[in-house]
Amino acid sequence: MRDVTTLADATPVAGATLTAALETHIRKATDALLSYQQGDGHWVFELEADATIPSEYVLLVHHLGETPDLDLERRIGAYLRRIQGAHGGWPLFQAGDFDISASVKAYFALKMIGDDPDAEHMRRAREAILAHGGASKVNVFTRIQLALYGVVSWKAVPVMPPEIIFLPRWSPFTIWKVSYWARTTIVPLLVLQTLKPRARNPRGVTIDELFLEPPATVGPPKKAPHQSWAWFLLFRGIDSVLRVIDPLMPRGPRKRALEAAVAFVRERLNGEDGLGAIYPPMANSVMMFDVLGFPPEYPERATARRSIEKLLVVGDEEAYCQPCVSPVWDTALTCHALLEAGGDTAVDKARAGLDWLKPLQVLDLAGDWAHARPGVRPGGWAFQYANAHYPDLDDTAVVVMAMDRARNAAGGDARYDRAIERAREWVLGLQSRNGGWAAFDADNTHSYLNNIPFSDHGALLDPPTEDVAARCVSMLAQLGETPETSPAMARGLAYLRETQLPDGSWYGRWGLNYVYGTWSVLCGLNAAGLGRDDPAVRKAADWLIRIQNVDGGWGEDGTSYKLDYKGYEPAPSTASQTAWALLALMAAGEVDHPAVERGVAYLARTQNAEGLWDEARYTATGFPRVFYLRYHGYRKFFPLWAMARYRNLKRANDRRVAFGM
């Protein structure tokens, strides 16, 4: 058997020899991945963002006036110092450009922890912030944080009167026209912006030194690059009117509006998994209960506060706060990788993971998505341990495809049949009018709302995207639907054809970026029966082959989301993005292409002693240009999946990928 070095340096060799060498790599990766399985059958890996969430965690503790855990603060401080960029500030992803909002929050948190403003790292951060225009340049969410601390006045924050909670669906703006993450963030903020609490800040920390002007003079936010001047000026005018009339609003309707906001939050508190199961709404809900006078021991406030503690990742020397947790996503994708790897142990462990997933399907609660699709029965899975109001299409499709593959491998095991059929029904019911699918809602496409002052991040909506639509097409095709027999499938394929870019790639909303989107769509096109000679498939495969790095891998970073994107720009190879490209090319019928063997050799060469892969770079997306993610599981299961599929196809008489992913 050839060793790792020999395989990695190989030129094309006989399939049997290459397959024999791959077995060692696949076995090591499989054993390592199995070692991470939890006792009840599931997998969950760390989900890391940038400096923003751990910084906000520190500021939340001091906003509430809690007695801080000094050892935890020390570890968070160590983490923040380590991820500081060479430019002096903090980026949104590893080796990324300076980001003013992340940098101001990180500086504030470090100063709150007790770092000396004259320390070298603090001086560099301060100089970088001032060189980029000072703290008045931060985004709206950071402005709200600073207003809560009294650093800037509330005139620096767009007006959000609580009465908007009563606006009907036909209104130009309503909470039901924005995404789930915006909705759950905004509603408790309505209470905070109305009552305007002041952070307790027992240490009396201020950051006036980060401003080029007196902080109290900072006015409303400027137009964001993605915003249209006409729309922005219209909404700025509305904001100016609201500032005048807001103090004059009658007390009765205002009281009822605040009560409605609190009722919305209470209905969706979600136990110790938290409001929306993502950090910003969870933190806002705690501050909401605080400003309303509920003491720390009040059950709902205490539960909401505990939900945040469950996001902490505490190591020996460092700690950080995750934006959320990803057990359903991690478990479903791990099951796919193990089913591909094969072997009795791996398959049995995958079935244990699927058995863990099965009862998490939401069958009895019509969540917020039902406002757009009231006649559809629930049947999806959420991303987190629990988030019943907000299941998502991506997780649901991935879970279904794994369950379907497992039942077919077992000769028609019926244990997943009902779950699969209910999920299919829900996915079909959530298709948007343009033929695509979004993550959480249907037809959440009111693009003009990204021009309101509050949406300077440009991520207020949840429109259909190529990657999620492709996943749903893949699922439907794997379950036996065809364009000829399924109007939903036909419309989905038409959407995917329409969204292919001139260079052959597809946009990736939830992963970085065009490599991720192209992988997702090629899987869907293959599952739907489109062959390697289809023009869309051929063009996409050629693009992937063209952008392969000289080391055999593929890479892409967050700069690909820039508004003036003109085509792929090289980035260092990563294991997960290399795996996506390989899976995409194999779905496109290119298993025998030299680029695929070079990619497999890259994965073999970079496999570490544990049997997995090292990957410090961020390869996933929360919100383009605003918030990026590093899934610690991606380097563990995607490369195994790609190598196992390569082995399996090389062994097979039929080179066609038989599954939706």
From TrEMBL:
Protein name: Squalene--hopene cyclase
Squalene cyclase C-terminal domain segment(s): 325-648
A GO molecular-function annotation: squalene-hopene cyclase activity
Gene3D superfamilies: 1.50.10.20
Record-listed E.C. numbers: 5.4.99.17
Pathway: Secondary metabolite biosynthesis; hopanoid biosynthesis
Organism: Rhodoplanes tepidamans
Gene designation per UniProt: shc
Keywords, comma-separated and alphabetical: Isomerase, Repeat
Domain Squalene cyclase N-terminal: 26-314
Family of this protein: Belongs to the terpene cyclase/mutase family.
